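Predict fold of Trafficking protein particle complex II-specific subunit 120 homolog; 1124 aa.
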Amino acid sequence: MEPDVSVETSAMIRIAIIPIGKIPHQTLRDYYSMFLHHHTIPLSSISSFYTEEQKSPFTNQPWETGSLRFKFILGGEPPSPWEDFQSNRKILAVIGVCHCPLSPDLDSVIEEFDGVCKGYASARVTRCFGFFPCDSQLEDGGKKGGNLRLFPPADRQTQEMHLQTMLQEIAASLLMEFEKYVFQAESAGTILKTPLDSQASLSSEEVIKAKKRRLGRAQKTIGDYCLLAGSPGSVCALLIDQLGLKDPSLEDEVRYRYSSVILHYKKSFIPENAQRVSPLSFELEANLKLARYLCRRELAKEVVDLLTSAADGAKSLIDATDRLILYVEIARLFGTLGYQRKAAFFSRQVAQLYLQQDNKLAAISALQVLSMTTKAYRVQSRASISNNSHTNEVGSSHADSGKMHHQSVVSLFESQWSTLQMVVLREILLSAVRAGDPLAAWSAAARLLRSYYPQITPAGQNGLARALANSSEMLPSGIRCSDPALPFVRLYSFPLHPSQMDIIKRNPAREDWWAGSAPSGPFIYTPFSKGEPNDSSKQDLIWIVGEPVHIFSGVGKPVLDLPPNSSKVITLSGIPTSVGPVTIPGCTVHCFGVITEHLFRDVDNLLHGAAQGLVLSDPFRCCGSPKLKNVSVPNISIVPPLPLLVSHVVGGDGAIVLYEGEIREIHISLANAGTVPVDQAHISLSGKNQDSVLSISYETLKSMLPLKPGAEVILPVTLKAWKLGLVDLDNASGSMGRQLKDSSSPSLLIHYAGPLTDCEDPPKESAVAPGRRLVVPLNMCVLQGLSFVKARLLSMEIPAHVGENLPKPVYLENSASKEAIGSETKMDGLLDSTEDKLSNGQDATEYGYPKTRIDRDFSARVLIPLEHFKLPILDGSFFMKDFKPDGAVGSRNSSFSEKSAKAELKASINNLISRIKVRWQSGRTSSGELNIKDAIQAALKTSAMDVLLPDPLTFGFRLVRDNLSQESGDSRPKGSVLAHDMTPMEIVVRNNTKEMIRMSLNITCRDVAGENCVEGTKATVLWSGGELTLHIATTMTNAAINDFAWFDFLAGVLNGIAIDAPPLQESKHSFSLYFLVPGEYSLVAAALIEDATDLLRARAKTNSPDEPIFCRGPPFHVRVIGTA
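Predicted 3D structure, encoded as tokens:
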């Protein structure tokens, strides 16, 4: 049997194309492709080469419309035993092809060609074509003549025109040879034999039968050459002449004739000759010819019956090659008819016949045939899918955001076909291994393992893994395959930009270009987009050229090792290189030595098929992966490079540990890590406790703009720790290093952008490069610091120093008080040094204490003098309730006055508490403020009157320097007194009431032991209270004072000084002291108030109107220097 048999096969002239000399394989292919363009030669084009020596036997030759049909056979073919019976089986012409540059000797070319032609005795015309000859070969070939035809060097178009002319000449020569053969067909003694005839010597009876068949065979041969010559003369010739026309009457005639022929072949079948030779092949060829002629959808049933009958006859064919050709033709016709699965079935039969041959070429043929069946069995390789359909599928892979495509699932994974599909893939794997095609073997093993692992035993899975490994060893490194193996990879999610890389849409028409924009990302809600409408069902995701991007993908590997039944989420990374929209259809995986592309769409279809029962197993569910969820794929666009600010806290990015009220300055480093300068920048605050950020040096950042790539700016930020609540105190009490929740800390929002554009016109919003937002969290860990354990009101003397100036009436530089707030302070941490300060409104009076160290779990006492917080006037309105004449609260006016007094008192208390502040400092940059409001308020609850109301009288001492000593320059330390020198002093008594106070003033001087220094015979301080004594003292020498006893009248006590102090005014009394011994002394003033009023008695809280009222001032220190 022969392939490609059809009704018009009888009209094709077979021409063998034989390579002569050395010809590269690709060059021979190019020459052969030139011949294929001229398989039909019109009769009208050969008239110039045709010579009619006598009247042509082809009386119906259509010179205007007819043509000769050529069938070129590259490399030729062996002669057929049936070529006498069917003339179209003969090789009627031989054309040699020579590549002259590799065959310089034309004589050897001609000799080789002549030797080749001897093997084709049936050839009527022989020609040898030489391509690209040199000049010498052209000259030499012109002399040789004969069958050699040289084609001068030229372009392909010229070569094809030259070849067309040569083929027209060959067609004319064949036509003339056909005419000669027909004229000689009835010559005497010619007996045509077929394989059906006996191969032994003919008996007399067989000779008689052969003579009777000779005339019929001769007429049949003449008809064959009429068809070859393009001269219609029978039904078949008429049919060939009307190819392409569908005439029902003609179809009926063809159907009738072929049916008769098929029936005749069946009758001539002789069982005893079946082992030798049989006309069955002609019967089957007739079935194929008729089926090919009738092959169209409307006649499908009739064609199927013919092909089925031919397939049944294949069992009786002896030659395996005939069965192979028959199955090939049946498969082709079923495919033409549209019956792809039937075509795939017979193609597999062809492959089985190839695989029965133990050679590489047969295995290659089997692999090619099986590859054509994969589409019908739906196990095709991705490489077999056309580029157009692949592009369309990829482009719309996620267009519907995970919608289910039922047809795709069914076409890719049909569980009812699984067994047959596995058999086909195993056959492809076997044929690929035999054919030595490692890539095809790897592809088949990958498809088999990936799609049908639930039905394969562990031993089979390991075998496929070995096949993958063995195939990869024979492949070059880095080779790619279109078919993925394991693992299964699906799209998990698109991560949001980190806070360091937020993308913000930019509105160039507004100064605050970032207003109303939310950070880019695939999530519908972010902490920065609250309250903004979301009109789009798909989110926009912006990537930047040159910056790494990431997506999360789920990986499932249900079989084999690494380890088995494992599933996890991994990060896939890449770097955009160009601007524009982008889709992510899948990823590349390097598995078993081969790089493959994994499409997310395929895994989505698999998972949806598993959910509906169309697929045997879910590779992710059996690995313990979470339940399938629809992934919203954003619209991804890539924009040009943008600036990129990277921040860190100088000194470390850990939590900033602060104590309550602590103030600390930190420095934040901002560096441009991008390739575009920062032209615009704005700083704002976000989150809770924004008031804990006291200051941000925005001008420092602004002065550095534009911030070029690689540049850095240090931004100072001042922070103040907030007061902890009850819940925070519980959290902080567990451990010093325990950080509070991040939501309690504020954050810096830095909106920045690069240059807008180089042109003057403002660009459209869609064309403007976006900006960015940098979120710098200020991770503050607030711990409980200094805290009051308890507070109480103390009455104690705090000495002052006698100086040249008295303290100011209200704001005291060096003050003393009878009352002070004493508190124990506890520190939940470690401080290097502590300095407590007291603030009084705008003009702060500071009390310095020696540096101390308060460790954790220890306490320290802090004294807060309250003297200068007293009211300036002692008014009787504060005692109205206690000094009513009738002891009742009666009238409306008195009630109103009482309320006013209480309101004033309450306001004074609040003012006092608000002005008292205790600050501490630790190290160089850490400082804080102690919250003492509640503690002071509790301490003053029962003693507010004692603290706020001033004493009736206040006392102060100062030194009186004369002008001479000031001008001459005194070398003594400031505030000190020389021993053995008369020191002038002055006492100032202030009346803090609105009434005149008459008093008896006493002054006492005491030494460090508390003994009176001006009384008795051992007094060490002498005094004077008059001008005469002062004058004498200033004119004496120190020795005279020690030698003469008449100065003893100077000793005594400063007492009984009568002073009338006017209301709210100061009274002064001058005196002088003479210190005999250097050292530390204290001056104390006291006064006995005479004729005390009710106000004074109320302030002193006396029980009897006759009880005396004393006022005593605080001690004033005097430092005496010199020698004894």
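Residues 545 and 577 are 5 Å apart (CA to CA).
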